[in-house]
Amino acid sequence: QVQLVESGGGLVQAGGSLRLSCAASGRTFSDCVVGWFRQAPGKERRLVAAITWSYGNTYYADSVRGRFTLSRDNAKNTVYLQMNSLKPDDTAVYYCAASRSTKVVFTTSLYNYWGQGTQVTVSS
Q1: Side-chain half-sphere of 40: how many Cα atoms within 13 Å?
Q2: 7-35 pLDDT per residue, tens
Q3: The pLDDT of residue 114
Q4: Which of 19, 115, 121, 123 has a CA positioned 20 to 30 A from the CA of residue 87?
Q5: β-bridge mates for residue 25, sequence order
Q6: Mean pLDDT of 50-74
Q7: What pLDDT score does 64 carry?
Q8: Are 60 and 48 in contact (CB under 8 A)?
């Protein structure tokens, strides 16, 4: 059984930065796509960034491109989401998820494993 554990959320002022971490246990991220989704109250859960573990290909939603950056630590089996220039619109619960797909997928149902979520709140 794979477990994903997120950390790093919190409260920050607009323009500030946070770094989210997603650590996997039970198996490695090899041959997986690791995605970060976010869900604001009353809105759908949407993919904001993803990385293919084998090739390191990345995807960023238009709303975060240029502000958010993915990175990974193979030895720690951990993916990081560095979030800079945060805006109040970035406020949401952020979820890490892993898919056995070999390419980036956008649908939540295609992700096999999920973390518990971490709250990010950006004040204006």
Answers
A1: 8
A2: 999 999 999 999 999 999 887 777 899 99
A3: 96
A4: 115
A5: 3
A6: 94
A7: 98
A8: yes
Return the percentage of the chain with pLDDT > 90, whole number.
83
Instruction: Average the pLDDT over 42-64 and give the result.
Output: 95
Q: How far apart are the first and last CA of the chain?
A: 40
Do the beta carbons of residue 53 and residue 30 sit within 8 Å? yes
Name the one residue in this structure whose structure tokens are 């939540």.
108
Query: Measured over all CA atoms, what is the biggest interatomic distance in the chain, rounded to whole angstroms?
Result: 40
Strand order in the sheet with 68-73: 3-7, 18-25, 78-83, 68-73
Q: 13: helix, coil or strand?
A: strand
> In whole numbers, what is the pLDDT of the chain averaged over residues?
94
Rounded to whole angstroms, the Cα distance separating 84 from 98 reads 23
The pLDDT value recorded for residue 2 is 82
φ, ψ of residue 109 in degrees (nearest 5) = -65, -15
**Contact criterion met (CB below 8 Å) for 118 and 4:** no
Instruction: Kindly provide the b/e burial profile for residues 17-56, where b requires at least 16 CB atoms within 10 angstroms of the residue's own CB.
Output: ebebbbbbeeeebeebbbbbbbeeeeeebebbbbbbbeee
